[in-house]
Amino acid sequence: MHKIFLAVAGLLLCxxxxxxxxxxxxxxxxxxxxxxxxxKLDEEVxxxxxxxxxxxxxxxxxxxxxxxxxxxxxxxxxxxLYAGVQCDNPEQKLVSDPKVVNHDDAVNNxxxxxxxxxxxxxxxxxxxxxxSCFNVKAEQRFINGNRERxxxxxxxxxxxxxxxxxxxxxxxxxxxxxxxxxxxxxxxLNVARNRRIPFMDExxxxxxxxxxxxxxxxxxxxxxxxxxxxxxxxAPGKLKMPFLPALERVEIQPYFIKDGTNYYQVxxxxxxxxxxxxxxxxxxxxxxxxxxxxxxxxxxxxxxTSTTSLAIDVPA
Length: 316
Fold this sequence. Notes:
Elements: E1 2-10, E2 28-30, H1 44-48, E3 55-57, E4 66-67, E5 70-76, E6 80-88, E7 112-118, E8 125-132, E9 137-143, E10 146-148, E11 157-163, E12 166-174, E13 188-200, E14 206-214, E15 229-230, E16 245-258, E17 261-272, E18 278-288, E19 294-302, E20 307-315
Parallel strand pairs: 2-5
Antiparallel strand pairs: 1-18, 3-4, 3-14, 5-6, 6-12, 7-8, 7-13, 8-9, 9-10, 11-12, 13-14, 13-15, 16-17, 17-20, 18-19
């Protein structure tokens, strides 16, 4: 059995009202040195950025419980809004296998974080980004209560790293997204953490539960824009448009033999999210049940919003 992972990214990625008055403001530190998206959080910018603060456990049987196992810091430059996330989990070594492996599936069922952004301050339109510790992503947009999940696939960047005590993530969301229906001065946000907690029941059977916590507490559900906290206004210099290629479709073709070796072919369709062009790289990682992964790369030119069809032969 083989597990197949795919990714596409620009090679020049890093270049480029109903709120109560007493709700705390989040701040994002402006940086001239964008973090390298590797999930390590070892850049200087993360040391200077102020954490959002405690999270509130969302459990109707518990009131007022706060936790300090999730730390979120924000930064920005002229192109991206960055989030640096540190998630502590003493049982992380037992969270060895992902529950979700496909983009836009129920990532919240896994060990994960969720970011909510409303850029016009009304709560009528907001964005929802989900990321698991295994770097599996989902995103959706809500307009007047209507959810756009499969039909809205806006590309964003992320990287994660896992250790025995938890995991870390770095996230980059293009600033120009917030100008679609709002601005950079009235952004409100919330952050959720889904922590997987493995345990043994009375019969010594391995079980698992999930603890949900929110930065800003909610009353009935996590989708409550009125509970989002304010983000202090962002003041980039000249706003820059990033190069944003994204996978539109992927198909795995049957095995075949070439030069005496078994292969299968991965066919991918890539489309740019805006008019920026540049070099991109499609990476296919084949992880057999035993042994080392096989990694195949293909560099290509993506021209603006055009569609690019690619095919890669992967040794089986």
